[in-house]
Each structure stands twice: as structure tokens, then as C-alpha cells.
Amino acid sequence: MIGAKDPIDRALVRHYANVKTCSFSEEKISPDDMWKKINMMSLSYKVHADLKTKVHLQIPTVKLKGFWDK
What we know:
- The chain is an all-alpha fold.
- The protein has helices at 7-16, 31-55.
């Protein structure tokens, strides 16, 4: 069964039935600003990937010791 089952849920449904939850007319984030940030992130990842391939950093292997190594 879908819907409000008790009086509290029914009251909440009535209360929020006509509330406007999203307004597309308001611009919260500038699209140009968002594209600049996306471009900066992609450039950062590209530089990091290029550096990783050129330097050939090896993954350090550290022997973990715990209570099971007695």
C-alpha cells in the first residue's frame, strides 16, 4: 500500500502538497564558473596522470604487522 498510513503522515502530505520545492528560474551556480572548475579539475587530473607515467613511481609495499603476526 502506497500513501500516508497514519494521521501524522496525512497531515504532512497535506502540508507539503503545495510547497514549491524547486525553482529553476533562480540560478544558484553560474554555468561559466562551473565550466571553469570542471576544466581546472580535468587539467589537474591530466597533469597528475602524465606525471605518473613519466616518473614511473612504484607503489610502496609496506609489510603490515598486526596481532595475527605473533
